[in-house]
Design a protein that fits this description.
This protein is an alpha/beta fold. The chain is built from eight helices and eleven strands. It folds into two domains: about 70 residues, 60s Ribosomal Protein L30, Chain: A; about 140 residues, Alpha/beta knot. The strands form two sheets. Strands 7-6-5-10-8-11-9 form a seven-stranded parallel sheet, sandwiched between helices.
Length: about 260
Amino acid sequence: MANKRFQKKPKLQQRDHEWLYGINAVEAAISSSYRKLFAMWVKHPVGERIQGLQKAAEERGITIKKATPEIIEMHCPDVVHQGVLLECSARHLETPTSLPATQKLNPFYLVLDQIKDPQNFGAILRSAAFFGCSGCIITKDHSPGVTPAVSKASVGVAEWFPIFETTNLARFLTDQKKNGFWIVGLAGDGKTELRKLERDRPLLLVLGNERRGLRQLVKQQCDWDVRIDGTEQVESLNVSVAAALACYQLGIQEEGSACKDFVSA
């Protein structure tokens, strides 16, 4: 009997190796430059949209392979893959000391304080992009990162939208204050209703963890403490819904106006 000490262990999937699934996520990844693309796996027969994806992949020099049931079960079990997988590298995020300049006079960014659920994160990215948010900052720890599940939930937005990460959120917010940003915390017990916030400078809107909300150290960095009002019958909103409403409100506001009737945090 062979000595177990010398038996070969099965190779684990590389940490920098992921499998995106779903037409929108794969299409967005092929069109962007955040990942290294190794191969596109297709389940036969293929529809018109996947034929278009194959053509785009071939134009970028990406190998096309047949996705057998065994391949799909191994890499993307129990998901709605729509017959297409993309074998690629992980999307690595930059950790900037200052946020990149935009064409907007007063841009707004979302900051997620330890949002953990991939479906919430993906939905937040989708809403942020739809309503004109300039980017999203997440915590390096206690965050799902830009995983295939996040990419699918965001309908591919996670593949091209500006996303950054920070190892120390409180310090990051302090640095951005020095760069001219307002820091706005969104919480159920906020002192001022969100609709009263009028943008006169760039701002960072901070949303807290699904269960705990904003951490105290993060809350202390906020210049403004806002809430979304609703009926008394329902205590709170899901964080992705709150993010969508907040992005809509900030997106429709005219820039260059002053903050009025505001209570400081």
